[in-house]
């Protein structure tokens, strides 16, 4: 079994409607298809790297290559866990959580996207709540950070709902233009005070050394 050699394949995060897991090849194929079909309004760009501007076939291949690259680069002091979100047996998007020097800093970042047909259904909140539970309850994180462009009301709304506080701004160049990102930060007390979604974590213990824990 692959999980004997790479225990992250046995990790599961479960919310009332979703299962989050490290994708196998079938899951990745489904995720690539979702990405190629579109994950946001083409008139706006919610990502610092505009990877969705490419033709659908290239977006699909890039999605596969990104996940493979993250697997190959994994190190306990520099890791990025990218999970697929599965609803009723269908891959609908991806949720990531990452950290550098986690054993010292105890801080994680998050990022996610959903297929357009799955927007505005509360899935983004459940996905973020799942990895926050993994970070705070499972890995003993002290902080979680996030960022959304000033015009990304949906992402900002998820952060505020889960207890994040404003933490300044960052400026980026996207599609050749300057854009402003709103940074947000969540501490352990804020996470605990704003927990409203039940999250079950399975298969974490054998993964802990991979997270630097």
From TrEMBL:
Alphabetized InterPro entries for the sequence: Acyl_CoA_acyltransferase (IPR016181), GNAT_dom (IPR000182), Ribosomal_N-acetyltransferase (IPR051908)
Any one cellular-component term (Gene Ontology): cytoplasm
PROSITE patterns, per database record: GNAT
Species: Actinoplanes nipponensis
SUPFAM superfamilies: Acyl-CoA N-acyltransferases (Nat)
Molecular function in Gene Ontology: protein N-terminal-serine acetyltransferase activity; protein-N-terminal-alanine acetyltransferase activity
Domain N-acetyltransferase: residue ranges: 18-185
Protein keywords: Transferase
Name of the protein this chain belongs to: Succinyl-CoA transferase
Ranges annotated as spanning the membrane: none
């Amino acid at each position: 079994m692959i999980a004997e050699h790479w225990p992250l394949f046995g990790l599961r995060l479960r919310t009332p409607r979703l299962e989050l897991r490290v994708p196998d090849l079938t899951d990745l194929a489904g995720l690539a298809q979702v990405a190629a079909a579109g994950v946001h309004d083409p008139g706006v760009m919610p990502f610092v790297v505009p990877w969705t501007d490419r033709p659908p076939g290239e977006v699909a291949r890039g999605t596969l290559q990104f996940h493979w690259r993250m697997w190959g680069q994994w190190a306990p002091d520099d890791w990025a866990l990218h999970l697929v979100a599965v609803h009723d047996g269908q891959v609908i998007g991806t949720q990531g959580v990452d950290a550098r020097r986690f054993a010292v800093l105890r801080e994680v970042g998050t990022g996610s996207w959903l297929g357009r047909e799955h927007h505005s259904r509360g899935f983004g909140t459940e996905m973020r709540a799942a990895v926050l539970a993994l970070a705070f309850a499972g890995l003993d994180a002290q902080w979680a950070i996030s960022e959304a462009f000033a015009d990304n009301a949906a992402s900002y709304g998820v952060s505020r709902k889960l207890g994040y506080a404003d933490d300044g701004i960052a400026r980026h160049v996207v599609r050749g233009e300057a854009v402003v990102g709103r940074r947000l930060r969540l501490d352990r007390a804020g996470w605990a005070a704003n927990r409203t979604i039940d999250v079950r974590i399975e298969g974490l213990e054998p993964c802990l050394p991979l997270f630097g824990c």
